[in-house]
Amino acid sequence: MKTYQIKTRDGRALHVVEAGDPKGLAVIVHHGTPGAGILYGPHIADALDRHIRLLSYSRPGYGGSTRHECRNVADVARDVEDILNALNIERCATWGISGGGPHALACAALLPSRVVAAAALASVAPYGAQDLDFLAGMGEDNIEEFSAALQGPDAIRADLTQRAQALTHLDLPTLLESMRSLLSFVDQRTLTGDFGAYLLDSFSTVKTYGIEGWLDDDLAFVKPWGFDVSAISIPVQIWQGEQDQFVPFSHGQWLRQHIISAESHLNADDGHLTLLAYRVPLVHEWLRHHF
């Protein structure tokens, strides 16, 4: 595994992690919210088997990447382009989970000459769409968090500061309790063993780096994204679980309906975490066929 600190065109640093096949097809990973560019062991092993060069980066404000205050979702495209240029990568594919989903879609929309295909797993849809009730069906914790984001920076900072305190002495029982309103049965069953340890590592980065990336993500999700998902023309997969209490099933349905090029996997038996734990190998196999 390699790590890089890549300088963006405006002088910020982006922390990038590379694993898998160093000579393979490049796939950029967009982590969830909160999180960091930490790769899950089985995803690395799968990437190696499929000859994929897996590259995960921490979005601005997370995990060693410089904050980009007031960013919108579209800003990710310039960051990813800077990563590709720094590493001499001409073309890539990309996938994002949860809060990483909109960022993968931004790359699909705004970098069609560099990104060959994209997958969004358990992604939120744009806030304010006339035919989507954004909060309907979310667990209470996420309703409270997004409601605070809608009130503005001061409200979401107060909300996330309180949430971050619960991550100070984090173990798996504490994580389960903190997510109680968000965990369907299938997701609770998934949050064990190696996958539980991986999620703990990812969430624990908030203790080291603070809430700024988390805060900027939440504000970006509830304001205009800076691109129109209906303009996406490259191949896209939309994955959504009907048992998802983090991001309601209706978000996946909305994205499927508004992205003409989308292939959808709207699964009755999946939740939120199950997509990250079990479906990434299927995503990798689909992505590699578009190079």
From TrEMBL:
InterPro entries hit by this protein: AB_hydrolase_1, AB_hydrolase_fold
Any matching Pfam family: Abhydrolase_1
Superkingdom of origin organism: Bacteria
MF term (GO), any: hydrolase activity
Keyword Nucleus attributed: no
Keywords: Hydrolase
Keyword RNA-binding applies: no
Domain (AB hydrolase-1): residue spans on this chain: 26-275
Protein name: Alpha/beta hydrolase
